[in-house]
Known about the structure:
The chain is of the alpha/beta class. It folds into two domains: 172 residues, Aspartate Aminotransferase, domain 1; 253 residues, Aspartate Aminotransferase, domain 2, CATH 3.40.640.10. It has 16 helices and 17 strands. It has a seven-stranded mixed sheet, with helices on both faces. Strands 1-2-3-15 form a four-stranded mixed sheet. A four-stranded antiparallel sheet has the order 13-14-17-16. Strand 13 and strand 14 form a beta hairpin. The radius of gyration is 23 Å and the shape is globular. The protein starts with a helix and ends with a helix. The structure holds pyridoxal-5'-phosphate (PLP). InterPro entries: Aminotrans_3, Class-III_PLP-dep_AT, PyrdxlP-dep_Trfase, PyrdxlP-dep_Trfase_major, PyrdxlP-dep_Trfase_small. This is Aspartate aminotransferase family protein.
Amino acid sequence: MLSVEDCDDLTVGQVHDLYRRFVNRSQVNLMTSFGFGRELVERAEGAYLHLRDGRRILDFTGGVGVLNHGHNHPRILDVRQRFAERRRMEVHKTYFSPYVAALGHNLAELLPGDLNMSFLPNSGAEAVEGAVKLAYKYHGGRRHTVLHADISFHGKLLGSGTLTGASRGHFAFPGISGAVPFTYGDLDSVRAAVAAHKGDVYAILIEPFSASTVNWCSEEFLRGLRELCTAEDIVLIFDEIYTGWGKTGSLFYFMRYPGLVPDVVTTSKSFGGGKSSISAYVARQPVFRKAYDNATDALLHSTSTTYYGFGEECATAIEAVNIAVEDDYPGRARRIEEQLAPGLKRIAKEHPDEVARVAGAGALWGVSIGGGPRVLDLAAKIAPGGLARDPRFRAKLVTAAVVNALYQDHDIYSYYALNGDNPLIVGPPLIVEPDEVDRFLDALDAVLGQGITKLLTRFAAQKLSSLW
Ligand SMILES: Cc1ncc(COP(=O)(O)O)c(C=O)c1O
């Protein structure tokens, strides 16, 4: 058997080989197209990755929402170390957990209105599915329709996958019944769906800010939804799994609008401070009580009877949330926006052939890369391996070439979204300093200055040389 110590000695070639044999062969083929797929990280701290070969990489992925605090935040490490040193109880089960109690209290303190009742599973998809089940139970199983947006991303389990509009057309896994899409941001489309299923809609699920497409709902739309849901007694669920804890410039995106309160909000990602795999739904007290507040149903919903509310996971989340509040993460995101917004817009203006769109809020921006030779569309059609099924092949390839050049030439780690028009995501951790934001902007400017054709040629040449 290999030990943890042995992991430190595995070469990148050996890791690829083990992945090929025991994890996922095609993942290796895909990810070795990028510089970061061919290297290993020695340690990660703050906004930086330190590679085995000594290179220091600026991490601008923000861990795809998980790393608002950066890597290995000292306060988070400290809390976890103290937890271990004191031999605190990890697995509570039928004992009550002071950590679950305190975390529930803090969430209720921070969220508006009577959003007071928390459920704490492990992943975003579990929180979404828990929220949808809560809404179904609230109506006692008498309503059967749940509305979701056409461009939504809510997770990849069977239920959350059904409610993910973006997954349509790729591969149809079986799903939950009664899921009906509406057009994101279009109140008339929601009204029409509610009217078409009069008296049968138990929940409306929406991301107020869609992190995977970098689109967001207007205040008018969100308030209109609230009004409609109140009038029709529909449970309104805001999915803020990505956008919580300051990322877009307010604690949660919807909280920029005073008095706006959904019936349920979901969170995860930076809720765990970059260390703990924890998520939550937080429900309005009357909604939660009507659904589950009796002796028979008290334990009815528990997606995670195994891993629910573990001690160190919750202690970590308590610290992560306290850091976000004490260090004013929303304010930090707003200051990052003051640099990113004008910087990215200037870049878009200087590179009109390469940049199709720039949009975002706080420390979460998308740069949609345009252009690229149209012959790539034809290449995708005749290429093996299922690429023909991907109508976004050209956009993905040109954006991948930009991600690769940022990494190879400027030691900057970034990613692009697999949803919408596949924007390059600019979502740094909230601990990033102004000079690091400037460094990113200069690097992106220089990369785009090379032109898409040159970037693609280099990217393709590297891919080919990695095959031989
Ligand atoms: C808005 C949103 N909802 C749900 C999810 C699913 O979370 P998980 O991947 O933890 O299941 C994600 C993940 O990216 C997300 O961004």
